[in-house]
Amino acid sequence: MTEKMRDRLILLGLVLALWELITGLKLLDPLLYPSPQTVFKLIIEDRDVFTKSLVSSFNLLFYGCLLALVTAIPLGLIVGWNRRLYSLIEPVMNILGPIPPIVYIPYAVAILPTFKMSSAFIIFVGAFWPLFINTVSGVQAVEQGIINSARTLGVGYSTMLLRILLPGAMPHILTGGTISLVMAFILLAAAEMIGATSGLGWYIKYFADFADYHRVVAGILVMGAVVFVLMIFYNRLAQYLLRWKLQKG
Questions:
Q1: Which of 37, 68, 124, 248 could be stapled to 64 by a disulfide with Cβ–Cβ 3.0 to 4.6 Å?
Q2: How many CB atoms lie within 10 A of CB 26?
Q3: For residue range 12-65, what is the model confidence (pLDDT) as tens digits?
Q4: Structural domain spans, the chain
Q5: Which CATH superfamily is domain 35-247 in?
């Protein structure tokens, strides 16, 4: 066990102990602040519902993020490499990029035929801009000496994009991917709380409407655990993709 992992387990144990102490002494309203045993018991009892909710949530997350991935990175490489195209696209980036994607929900529900498509679209919008903007920035941050050397060797357009600019921009792309993933989860929860019939966001909203805050806390913990595990895998992937940089460093 690494020192970092040991420190995290110690911190988790302290948090659970403090949680148990506060709820055991009834320092807070027990209807709003359940004990750890109560929450974990509910997670086990509702495991079938959580399993179904996870499948539903990951289904929406997959389509939204996949669409952002296959559009944002190629477009970011092209726009970042072509200065004239960048000068045309930059105002659009500055206008549309900062708009909170959640404001598109009513419009997406109105124009798209199903809730699933509307939710996937909102997740796509939220994941697209951080990934696209960071890809553009990453391309523009590639050292000019590397680009000049590639030009001297006479590399073609596609080779320049895929073999020179893409690896050079990868640190920025992965940073944008982190932001996109977090944004996607936020929008996923928001979308599921509005009109879904399954999903982690739906689970939390459904039981909140019935004032069953014990299950609300259980849903929040499950969602937090899912995000935590997913980010661990993402960080491992990022380390693998940047192994050349780590070895160089």
A1: 124
A2: 10
A3: 888 888 888 888 888 888 888 899 999 999 999 999 999 999 999 999 999 999
A4: 1-33, 35-247
A5: MetI-like (1.10.3720.10)
